[in-house]
Amino acid sequence: MKVLAYTSPARGHLFPLVPILDELSRRGHAVALKTLASEVPIMRDRGFDASPIAPAIEAIPIDDFQGRTPNVRIKRAMAAFGRRAEHDLADLREAIEQHEPDALLVDCMTWGASAAAEAWGGPWAQWFPYPLPLSSRDVPPFGPGLAPLHSRLGRMRDRVLRAVIEPPVARATLPAVNAARARAGVPAAKDLDAHFTAPPLLLYMTAEPFEYPRSDWPATVLAIGPCPWDPPADSPAWLADVDRPIVLVSTSSEFQDDGRLVTTALEALGDEDVQVVATLPSAELPTGGIPANARVERFIPHAPILARAACAITHGGAGATQKALAAGVPVCVVPFGRDQLEVARRVEVAGAGTRLPAPRLNAARLRERVRTAMTMTAGARRVADGFAAAGGPAKGADAFEALARASQSSPSRV
Question: For 14-18, 23-27, 278-282, which range has the lowest pLDDT when averaged over its residues?
């Protein structure tokens, strides 16, 4: 089978896909991949027929961090995805013509490419590496990071808030989604749920007990766990000399103006009996004030650090947070926006760590939350066990192969 995978310009979306592509390749399938230009060489090293997405897509930044209110931030982000969709639709169509695939794997945040995949007529699936905003009677409306309340009062709260929260998100999202769908020649999505249920298969990269249980989601949504992956790299030589508990601090891989998480962590933990290891892949590196018990790097592989870590401080990105939990490491989450409030609340509800809203971030509060998180290893290990039981890349590859086989045997295939 020839597989074509198409990603948005986000490492946090590419990296969780890599183990699935590895598994498909191991099973003998030919894998072509269109992704960020910077990641093409390393993807080719893995044996994929990798090429860059259209440069115009990478030229459109996600600048939601500049918004002053949640609604403004949502509008800015959705507008950027809408502008990208104008390019990724044509980009995937060209890739289909070039590679003549048997099946497609498409990033959930490529609205134009997803519409092109649907119009193509062959088997296609999406992957979703962060909390899925699909509505459910079992959970609160998506966005503000509310804890589920399984009571009559909780259901009443959720109905009221859903009527307040969801319409502005739909107004910010659906016009751009449906503009892309119209260009692709597929029917408009009548609501946001229709947008999320369009794929015949959605590989959802999380699992219980981190994700909340749902009784009413469609069978097309398959939770497989987070599929964490790091680019190959040697373990830092200095790591063998560390003889104190390690606290890993990580910021977003896509710029979000969250660098103060690292500077606050250095201040909060400078006198603690820990080794702080901070990575800032997109934020500015601090120029001074680094305590003796800390190292600050642009990038180092997280896996060897997490193997020794007592806690991870994250910005609430699903990738970084779930990577730590998959290693059984409790987390302290400081969400700055996007889906991160939902991630932070899931950490708290799962008993796998603590959360500290970014507006309340200071050294004293962060120190206290980290100390508490370090006592919650049992909760993190429960989450790690749940992730492992979900099946991971093998389960994702199984489902994708089954989808392709069913399509090949269907008389309706065009």
Answer: 278-282
